[in-house]
Amino acid sequence: MVATMSSWFASIPSPGPEWQQIPIDIFGLHWRIQTYAIMILIGIVVAALWTSRRLTKRGAEPGVILDIMLWAVVLGIIGARLYHVFTHPSDYFYPGANLLNVFAIWEGGNAIFGSLIGGAVGIWIACRISGLRFWSVADALAPALLLAQAIGRLGNYFNQELFGLPTNLPWGLQIDAGNKAIPVGLPADTLFQPLFLYEIIWNVIGVVVIVFLERKFRLQWGKTLAVYLIWYGLGRSYLESIRIDPSEFSFLGIPSNVWAAFLAVVLGIVIFIVQSRRHPGLEPSVYRPGREWVRPDAEVDSDDTDSDDEDFVDGDGEPTASAGAKATSPSRG
């Protein structure tokens, strides 16, 4: 539905092109930092700090998150860009196209599903190196990842991307008429569904839901990750269906990103069911057997030998550091 002129004045304005970059002049050198990249970086830092705290409470070595994030972030960015390029080939491959634009991630165009795939591979590699359990790290990361995604969506706002179909709702989003995602023929005062805002709200609510369920039911062994996949997949399946620039590939009339969202939901359900049957109890440690980290100040007393599963969970349902302190050899030199 096309917005009227009156609703244009009761809408969400988009930042102008000058907001997409922050100029920095240092010692005569002129730099322009992409606002999109800054928001992604802030999200990564927030996720790393929160995940580190959650892992440390479970008995992981402080600072081990840096080893994990190094692999996860690099492969996550690569996966995000590749997925976007492969699902929008006409934007990059056409007569006279500059193929170097395939690598121009600062201009936007990074698919979250590709990031999840690449990031998961990175986490798996890091866990093999550090001795951590993949499922423990994934569970610790799940709510922090959702919060990071909410922060990163602000980058889409500054880039004037990730918006939906035309609307006359009072919170319709203003988009510059020259935006290449706008279909030809729409009036210049058309407002659009602010999908970036919808996803921010959905993700923030999801963080609360995930943390609540995790503490209420003591979710471990990948089940917190499963809740994340189900929640995020459900939200994205709807948002992608009303996106104005969906992926170019579709099956049965459904865009590939919607199928990816459905797959995330199914995968989350499968992980939850399988892991609930395989691991009905609590994790003995966030480390694999023989790879545990010992705290330098750890003391062993007679009470430790008689502890049961309750000793590994604090009042909020969080496993305590003692769960990871029953160690024989450090995981890192």
TrEMBL record:
Family: Belongs to the Lgt family.
InterPro entries in the record: Lgt
Ranges that cross the membrane: 33-52, 64-83, 103-127, 134-152, 195-213, 225-244, 256-274
Pfam families attached to this UniProt entry: LGT
PANTHER family per record: PHOSPHATIDYLGLYCEROL--PROLIPOPROTEIN DIACYLGLYCERYL TRANSFERASE, PROLIPOPROTEIN DIACYLGLYCERYL TRANSFERASE
Compositionally biased residues, Acidic residues: 299-317
EC number: 2.5.1.145
Topological relation to the membrane, as annotated: Multi-pass membrane protein
Annotated localization: Cell membrane
Official protein name in the record: Phosphatidylglycerol--prolipoprotein diacylglyceryl transferase
Keyword Phosphoprotein found: no
GO cellular component terms given for this protein: plasma membrane
Function: Catalyzes the transfer of the diacylglyceryl group from phosphatidylglycerol to the sulfhydryl group of the N-terminal cysteine of a prolipoprotein, the first step in the formation of mature lipoproteins.
Keyword Transmembrane: yes
Renumbered residue ranges of the record's region Disordered: 293-333
Recorded GO MF terms: phosphatidylglycerol-prolipoprotein diacylglyceryl transferase activity
Gene Ontology terms describing biological process: lipoprotein biosynthetic process
Pathway(s) of this molecule: Protein modification; lipoprotein biosynthesis (diacylglyceryl transfer)
Positions of a 1,2-diacyl-sn-glycero-3-phospho-(1'-sn-glycerol) binding: R153
Superkingdom of origin: Bacteria
Keywords, sorted A to Z: Cell membrane, Lipoprotein, Membrane, Transferase, Transmembrane, Transmembrane helix
